[in-house]
Amino acid sequence: MLSARRRGRAVAPSSALMLLLSLQSLFSRASSYRTSSSQISRAVASRRGASSWNTSPCGDSIIQSSSQLYSQKSTYMANDVVELQYSEFLPPSTASSNTPVIFLHGLLGNKRNFASLASSLSTQLQKPRPIYTVDLRNHGENTHDWRPSMSYSEMARDVLAFMDKVSDLNNGHEKAVLVGHSMGGKVAQSLALMHPERVEGLVVLDIAPVRYYSEKQGMGGGRGGDDSGWKAVEEIVRSVAQIDLSEGGYLTKRDVDAVLRRGMLEDPALRAFVLTNLEQRRASGGDESPLRWKIYWDGIVHELDRIAGFDVNDRVMDDSAEETELTMRQSDVQYEGDVFFIHGGASRFVRHSHISTIGTFFPNHMLTTIRGVGHWVHAEAPDDTIALLKRYLDR
To answer: How far is the C-alpha of 219 from the C-alpha of 128, rounded, in Å?
Structure first.
């Protein structure tokens, strides 16, 4: 569930054009309908059909980055939520009446992971929208408010509070389209299930609303445990969290990189990604380390079990719960809006065994696969990802 950029990797023969033609062919065989004159045509996903989507390019974007603008908004903020830091990508026409889009990064990521994609997308949408990328709890610029807990319900409330904060900048829009990768995808799903009235649309990048396991267990009923790669994620987090910047004479990122390279994290792309969470202090005095982590390792390590699972409204919704109780809980929550799952063909985070669970929570879903790419779909195939997002957002 890590979120990283892998540059220079060739995308398999499934180009954006082929993907869109495939989707268009699917939709052309399905019936479309319109809910009312005040709503856009809804794409009914999965086995129930969908309406056609349209795209066309439009102007330039304006990027605005954040905390001062954030603090000038509504003063409402409950004690149990984190005031999330963010960047804003405005369309050429700042008077756009379309619902905003919020991007949610994965574990060990930050708002910058989606900056390039969000900037490109904001210039290409036929229906211009404000686009936001946020730092989720215990990540990025949220150093002002580290928290010991980070369930998906809590992180969803953080995002909901952020939506409340920026609604006055978006013509009073209380809804948003959520796009989440990995851990951020689970946050988006949890929020949609908790407050469906606040989510106009949902795009999930390579993650399912299930529990992932370090070992092959929890296979009963076709849910949960499989060899998704979660074990490697846990090992990376626990290993890097042990690096104490106050000891060992670490002066630069290169020093930390050298330690990671020696058996702890040999993949150069993942090392570079992890090091985006390391900040070089401009000036340090006394015994203060010249480096600092912009990520709360203690909180993340403590909550790895929760991050591996899935919860909604503070209730466990994965197969670690007792089966009868789980069935009752799952029947209580459902998001009937249009949900678009984009899966990396070389990834194992979305499996055939997950489809029934996805369908239980999201009856109007569609799943498409970008062949030849792994878990970091948006980084390994940015053009394909942008093309699919355009098709969804401009439908």
So the answer is: 44
Three-class SS state of 88: strand
Give the closest residue to 197 by CA, choosing from 334, 69, 321, 315: 334
Taking the alpha carbons of 179, 181, 182, 184 in that order, is the dihedral positive or negative?
Answer: negative
SS3 content of the chain, % helix, strand, coil (to 5): 40, 15, 45
Question: How large is the average pLDDT for residues 182-187?
Answer: 98
Summarize pLDDT for 239-267 with one digit per residue, the tens: 999 998 988 788 899 999 999 998 788 88
Token readout for 166 is 């920026």
Contact by Cβ (8 Å): 392, 43: yes
Calculate mean pLDDT across residues 339-360.
Answer: 95
Q: Which phi and psi angles does 200 have, rounded to 5°?
A: -80, -25
pTM: 0.80
- Rounded CA separation 11/346 (Å): 11
- As a whole number of angstroms, the distance between CA 237 and CA 108 comes to 8
Long-range contacts (CB closer than 8 Å, 24 or more residues apart) made by 215-220: 218/319, 218/320, 220/319, 220/323
* Among the listed residues 213, 273, 265, the one whose alpha carbon sits nearest the alpha carbon of residue 239: 265
* 231 vs 97: which has the higher pLDDT: 231
